Here is the input.
Amino acid sequence: MGVLKSQKESNKNRNEAIRLGLKIYTGKPCKNCSDTKKRVDSYGCVTCSNKRGLLNSKTTNGKKWAFKSRIMFKYKLSLDDYNKMYTEQNGKCAICNNPETRGRYKKLYIDHSHVTGKVRSLLCHRCNSILGFTNESIATLQKIIQYIQTHNN
Here is the structure.
């Protein structure tokens, strides 16, 4: 109930800030830095948004800085680290050994443990989705293999 109340209070604060023409309001603590100052236009944390802004100003405009910013904050991985992994994998998925074919920029996805947060390797969209949809359950993946073997006659 406390979380629901906190969410309602956060929305109330945001609505009040909008009504008053403010750009910042007090909301739920950020999961990355625990700051409670939020931007009205994006719900984003002020501290993290400012850090991303500094990164953005030091890189080129467009998709490159957005990707760099995201991998740095989410995975604690530099663009050089990503490029090194990409080169070591020859630009191919660590599971199916195929290059990424989806999307405009054809970037491989950064696979990581949802338990430890540790980056494992780069995967294509399909393999990354399979792991996600099965919640990385070995038992479920084995049942999928058994199903395919049974019905692939």
Notes: The helical segments are 2-20, 46-58, 63-75, 79-88, 125-133, 138-151.
